[in-house]
Every structure is written in C-alpha cells, then in structure tokens.
Amino acid sequence: MSTTTRTITVAIDSDCRLGSTPLIWGAVEGDDSDAAVANAREWIAEGGELSPAQVQRRAEGLDVVTIQWEGALPNGDNAKAIALALAGLAAEAD
C-alpha cells in the first residue's frame, strides 16, 4: 500500500521564544508562508493576553518551512512534524 504525501508549510518556534520546546504554531496546505504565519497569528492570539501588535511580532518571528507530510495537518507538538521542520530549516541554512 502506498502512502500519499503532500506539501504543507509550517510556522515553527525553532528558537523556543514562545515556550521551552520548539512547537509548530501554524500549518497550512501547500507552499504558502504568508498563510502559515496568518494561521500562527490565530493560535498565538487565542489566549487573548497579547495585543494585536504583540501577536503580529511573535508570529512574524517564527521560522517558516515547507515539508512533505502524510495525513491530517499536524498538531503543534507533533514530534515527527517538528523534526521534519527543523531538518528542513537546517538544510536551508546549509
């Protein structure tokens, strides 16, 4: 049985600015950095504790990378998605 992968873009807190571990704050279908950051803004704003400007700055401070993924969009703490995203960022840095 073959598995179908698709392209998704994630906004990840790779430097742990928003928590103690890298987390994915935005995930969208396709190669779309703007949409991933917009999705991250929604999640960051959800607690209601930050001003819109603070939410915007935090979302724009995330790293954005496109990965190949199977199944539903990953949760923010999905270890496999985080590992793929960090590996993709490392490859981009080389």
Please, what is the average pLDDT? 95
Unreliable spans = none
**Cα separation of the termini:** 35 Å
How many domains, as an integer? 1
Q: Proportion of β residues?
A: 15-25%
Helix content: 25-40%
The 3D shape can be described as globular
Verbal overview:
The chain is built from three helices and three strands, in the order E-E-H-H-E-H. Helix 1 crosses helix 2. The chain has a three-stranded antiparallel β-sheet. Helices cover 39% and strands 21% of the residues. The protein has helices at 33-45, 52-60, 79-93, and strands at 6-12, 24-29, 63-69. It is of the alpha+beta class. The protein has one domain (6-87).
Task: Provide key terms for this protein.
94 residues; alpha+beta; three-stranded antiparallel β-sheet; 3 strands
Summarize the structure.
The protein is an alpha+beta fold and 94 residues long. The chain has helices at residues 33-45, 52-60, 79-93; strands at residues 6-12, 24-29, 63-69. It has one domain (6-87).
Helices and strands in order, then pairings?
Elements: E1 6-12, E2 24-29, H1 33-45, H2 52-60, E3 63-69, H3 79-93
Antiparallel strand pairs: 1-2, 1-3
Helix pairs in contact: 1-2
